[in-house]
Amino acid sequence: MNSVQVRIADWQQDNAELRRIREAVFIAEQAVPPEQEWDADDNEAVHFLALEGDYPIGTARLLADGQIGRVAVLRDWRGMNVGDALMRAVLAEAERRGLTEQTLTAQVHATAFYERLGFEVVSDEFLEAGIPHVDMLRRSH
């Protein structure tokens, strides 16, 4: 595997790739209804693309209030630290923007991954799109 690079994406220019990854992971794999996947926040968010060579394999977004979401890595690249590289880039950008608290809504099976990055669970479990989730918070030091 080549080294994975993460860059800030442009919602307009990179739209097809961002949509392809999120549709594969959330809509096709996890059966999230399309109307829940796409929202007005996409226009305002800072988007990230993880690439192996020139091929986009993961994405995430950061909102102005420090909320991180839509973290997705294509199935064939999971377990290869792509999510880790993606999240480290998002957290670095959040801190660069002075966002001292970052929040996210995590699927319960992924909480250990986010805990390794400094997040802690701050809610009870709840269902979102039929999938168990928890809210998580990270404070920058």
From TrEMBL:
EC id: 2.3.1.-
Keyword Ribonucleoprotein: no
Pfam family, one: Acetyltransf_10
GO molecular function: acyltransferase activity, transferring groups other than amino-acyl groups
Record-annotated N-acetyltransferase domain positions: 4-141
Keywords: Acyltransferase, Transferase
Domain of life per record: Bacteria
InterPro entries registered for this protein in UniProt: Acyl_CoA_acyltransferase, Bact_Acetyltransf, GNAT_dom
Protein name per Swiss-Prot or TrEMBL: GNAT family N-acetyltransferase
Organism the protein comes from: Stutzerimonas kunmingensis
